[in-house]
Amino acid sequence: MVASRIIVKRAAQIPPAVRASVIETLDACIFAAVLSLIIITFVVQAFYIPSGSMEPTLLVDDRILVAKFLYRFEPVARADVIVFRYPLNPSRDFVKRVIGLPGQRVQLKDGVVYVDGDRISEAGYTIHKDVGNYGPITVPRGEFFVLGDNRNNSEDSRFFGYVPRGNIIGRAVFIYWPLGRVGFVH
After folding, report:
1. Which of 156, 10, 149 is nearest to 94 (CA)?
2. Which residues are paired to 168 by β-bridges?
3. Using an 8 Å Cβ cutoff, are 75 and 102 in contact?
4. pLDDT digits (tens, 9 = 90+) for 5-20
5. CA geometry: angle at 84 spanning 112 and 184, to 5°?
6. Which one of 1.10.101.10, 3.40.50.10260, 2.10.109.10, 3.40.50.920 gives the CATH number of domain 44-184?
7. Do the bridges between strand 143-147 and strand 163-164 make them parallel or antiparallel, or are there none, so unpaired?
8. What 8-state DSSP symbol labels residue 58?
9. Is 61 within 8 Å of 178 (Cβ atoms)?
10. Residue 66 contacts by C-beta under 8 Å, 6 or more apart in sequence?
11. Is 68 noted as a catalytic residue in this protein?
């Protein structure tokens, strides 16, 4: 209460031009903070890649932009690289590639992925040696089966299960750092 009286009394002593400049600066700062909050909450957010589970697509120390709004207008598709809240600890964020959609039957056989009995082409984005066999399993309604591109170094749906639709934050769309790797995520 005393502090506010002192501020008001001293503010009256500040020349009007300076006071207007300070108010204008504060308005701009508040507007920028609110706009940033809206953008981060609904539009796009930056994420850091801490592990090699998505090599060669995403490397350790890459920084990516994730479009949070895309899945409001289009469905999650197979081969999308998504960021999601880890099902076993929602305070952690993971990034993986969508392999199985709700209702699809997924199987790994000798390192090859089959969806609904058809071998899927993963040329150019996977690293795996001997990942063994997994499944077949049917992806439950409202959930997704995800795998890391570096299959031997990835904690993915083979270990933690499915990713609920509500855990998906958005689709990884752009690598913005380091400068030598700037480009779209494929």
Report:
1. 156
2. 84
3. no
4. 666 667 667 777 777 7
5. 70
6. 2.10.109.10
7. antiparallel
8. S
9. yes
10. 44, 45, 46, 47, 83, 169, 170, 171, 172, 173
11. no
Structure tokens at 157: 């749906």
Catalytic residue among 4, 36, 51, 96: 96
Residue whose C-alpha is closest to residue 51's, from 162, 139, 153, 121: 153
**Given 53, 68, 154, 157, which residue is catalytic?**
53
Q: Which residues contact 83 (CB under 8 A, 6 or more apart)?
A: 47, 64, 66, 93, 94, 95, 168, 169, 170, 171, 172
Active site residue 53: yes
Query: So where are the chain's domains?
Result: 2-42, 44-184
Question: Angle 89-39-60 (CA atoms, 0-180°, nearest 5)?
Answer: 50
Residues 15-70: tens digit of each pLDDT: 777 777 777 777 777 866 776 666 666 678 899 999 999 999 999 999 999 999 99
